[in-house]
Amino acid sequence: MTNKPFFWKLQDNILDKENKQTLIKFIQSTDRFTQFEEVKKFEREWSAWQGRKHSVFVNSGSSAILVIISALKEYYKWEKDTEIIVPAITWITDISVLLQLELKPVFVDVNLEDFSFDYDDLASKITSKTKAIFLTHLIGFPADVNKVKQIIGKKKIHLIEDCCESPGATISGTKIGNFGMVSLFSFYWGHHMTTVEGGMICTDNKKLYHLFLLKRSHGLARELPKNLHQYYKNKHKDIDFNFLFLTNGFNVRNTELNAVLGSSQLKKLDGYIEQRNKTYDNFLNIINHYPEFLLTPYNNGISSFSLPLILKKQYIKNRLQKFLTRNGVETRPIIGGNLLRQPFLKSEFKNKGFPNAEFLHKNAFYIGNNQFVNSKKLNRLKELLDIFFSNPKNITHE
């Protein structure tokens, strides 16, 4: 049997007519498309929305990770094989950047409530070499940051928040991304809002902010705030200031076009989040009819990224995922599943002691959530789940 065309995709086009008209108007009004005033404007707007002092717009969430880790390593003089704690389920560049910069990822299992760290396992993995905890707020669920900070205590361990899948999620009314020294966001096509490609770095630390600016654009001094320019002109009189490199950097700038789109999308982000969360509530009402088969994760501070289907039995998960795909519902794993199973990691790291990551790898997948998931789609999902779970062949182990 061939699969039907997807009537429910992981992500639909969220660029509306107004977004496109805004882009057209900007293109017709300017000759400057590389990083300039629109980027700065979007950064200011994002800082105001997020509630942090400084924001740096880059070309992807993964580039944000690269800039952050490179800057922290330089700023704090981290040595080779400095330990950075990471979850076993997150996006792969949280890990690959550490390896590229010769740091040592220390994997911690996840929990099945907020999908962040297993907090007991986290506490057990901290050593004298631990310099940072790289926390992921996974698929819209805010991690228990207060618990993480309690575990850190008075240790000199920095907290990095990966908020790429959870902008606007809250903990006791405070947005995630405001608890750690630095946080990062992604505006990729399938996320809560989009700049097509793009990411943002947020911090309240001015010195780190300046280092992020440098590393975003080759290490060039001219990227710094103008009030610092004269100092470096005087300090390095033998070098043309426009080509003065203060550190080793990258080219991960974004463009004026992406920033204009970001500003346009940001105006609607709160509405997008509200719609996603309403859909998630309706989704929970549907899957609550099948407690024998499905887990029903919920958190008061959620900013729903997707609609996870977590089966208690792996064989039922495998059958349900195929069934939904055949019937026009696009599915995917929970991010990349247990990363310790990935080819480029399994040769170096042992996949032992991660039972919850293994459970989600084998028993879970998700379907898309966005502002286009309407009652018609949800009713069809309920019909499909009723058909599936009412058939003994689907739920009986052979």
From TrEMBL:
- Please give the start and end residues of each transmembrane region: none
What Gene3D superfamilies would the database entry show?
A: Aspartate Aminotransferase, domain 1, Type I PLP-dependent aspartate aminotransferase-like (Major domain)
Top-level taxon in the UniProt lineage: Bacteria
Gene Ontology MF term list: pyridoxal phosphate binding; transaminase activity
Keyword Nucleotide-binding appears in the UniProt entry = no
Q: Which GO terms describe its biological process?
A: polysaccharide biosynthetic process
Which controlled-vocabulary keywords does the entry list? Pyridoxal phosphate
| Record family assignment | Belongs to the DegT/DnrJ/EryC1 family.
Protein name from the UniProt record: CDP-4-keto-6-deoxy-D-glucose-3-dehydrase
